[in-house]
Write a structure and sequence with these properties.
- The chain is of the alpha/beta class.
- It has a single domain (4-53, 72-193, 220-301), classed as Aldolase class I (TIM Barrel).
- Helices cover 34% and strands 20% of the residues.
- The chain has helices spanning 26-33, 76-85, 103-116, 141-154, 169-179, 224-237, 252-261, 270-275, 278-294; strands at 4-6, 9-11, 15-17, 40-41, 58-61, 64-67, 94-98, 121-125, 159-163, 185-190, 194-198, 200-201, 206-207, 215-219, 242-246, 265-268.
- The chain has an eight-stranded parallel sheet with strand order 3-16-15-10-9-8-7-4. The protein has a four-stranded antiparallel sheet with strand order 5-6-14-11. Strands 1-2 form a two-stranded antiparallel ribbon.
- It starts with a strand and ends in a 15-residue tail after the last helix.
- The structure holds 3,4-dihydroxybenzoic acid.
- 3,4-dihydroxybenzoic acid binds at residues 20, 44, 52, 68-71, 99, 125, 127-130, 192-193, 217.
């Protein structure tokens, strides 16, 4: 049994897409919805549509991916309208990712979403690394506190945030202290890509993506240990909140690792981009097999139970 109940939502299994992958158009969102995934999340949106950064802006490598998409999206109303017509009764929860370029843009979208009274949950993105000249909000703890204060004021319902990876125990503690201030902040998604890596093509002696002279967010196997550390530390530091694991899941084994570290549910990014929606059924099969080998009946049997030495 792979089912998960959390935040009043029932999911048949813990896998869904990471925001950004297979979720920009209704056709892509429907691909995820009609797959084996347990939920669906939309592409991070802004109030107005955006074309994003110049191409090439995504490149896969043997160990993962680098991207600098630049927030190409169809605009908030497109995703809100999808959320309005979404068949919630079919039992696949919908999450709406919001990534305004400014706090006011996020507040405008959240006010509208609150008024729409839809049974989807917002994941507010505090961590897009790909907007030239714009630092990731998640790395400024005071700015996060101020933003979350206003967000919780305009949006009375439960919500979550997408966090960038942190790399220092003091930073985990400082961010956790901010997040614990907000009772309606019910989940954190760890992690967004490791920002501003550089992949080099030796043959062409060149960068592999065009924006920002080749700098971009890393995903896939490169980021798995960093993702697991962030899931583990926020699981310990945010009692009563949920951690959504994201980063480096290619098989049932990595999904198991994220859940063992404390993830309630997990998202698939690079692997989904590379393999297509068949990745969900494959990873679920692998997770089922691993659990059977270990004698686990359900995710609660091992969630968060990582041993230390
Ligand atoms: C984009 C990338 C991100 O990592 C993110 O969180 C939001 C947007 C992008 O480049 O489109």
């Amino acid at each position: 049994d792979l089912s998960v109940s959390w935040l009043g939502l029932a999911m048949a299994n813990p896998l869904y897409n990471a925001s950004g992958v297979m979720c920009r158009s209704v056709a892509e969102l429907e691909q995820v919805r009609t797959s084996a995934a347990g939920a669906v999340i939309t592409k991070s949106c802004t109030p107005q549509p955006r074309v994003g950064n110049p191409e090439p802006r995504y490149c896969a490598t043997p160990l993962g991916s680098i991207n600098s998409m630049g927030l190409p999206n169809a605009g908030y109303h497109y995703y809100r309208d999808y959320a309005r017509s979404y068949p919630y009764a079919a039992g696949k929860p919908l999450f709406l990712s919001l990534s305004g370029m400014t706090l006011d843009e996020n507040l405008d979208m959240l006010r509208d979403l609150a008024a729409a009274e839809l049974p989807c949950l917002p994941e507010v993105n505090l961590s897009c690394p790909n907007l030239p000249g714009k630092p990731q909000l998640g790395y400024d703890f005071q700015a996060c506190r101020e933003a979350l204060t206003q967000i919780a004021r305009v949006y009375p319902g439960d919500f979550g945030v997408k966090l960038p990876p942190y790399f220092d125990p003091v930073h985990f503690a400082q961010m956790a202290e901010v997040l614990n201030t907000f009772p309606t902040l019910r989940f954190v998604t760890c992690i967004n890509s490791i920002g501003n890596g550089l992949v080099i093509d030796v043959e062409h002696e060149s960068v592999v993506i065009k924006p920002k002279d080749g700098l971009g967010g890393l995903g896939g196997s490169y980021v798995l240990p960093t993702a697991l550390a962030n899931v583990r530390e926020f699981y310990r530091l945010l009692p009563g909140k949920h951690v959504v694991g994201c980063g480096g899941i290619n098989s049932g084994r990595e999904a198991f690792m994220h859940i063992l570290a404390g993830a309630t549910v997990v998202q698939i990014g690079t692997c989904l981009y590379e393999e297509g929606e068949g990745a969900f059924a494959r990873i679920l099969d692998e997770l089922r097999q691993l659990m059977a080998q270990k004698g686990y009946q359900c995710l609660d049997d091992f969630r968060g139970k990582l041993k230390t030495l």
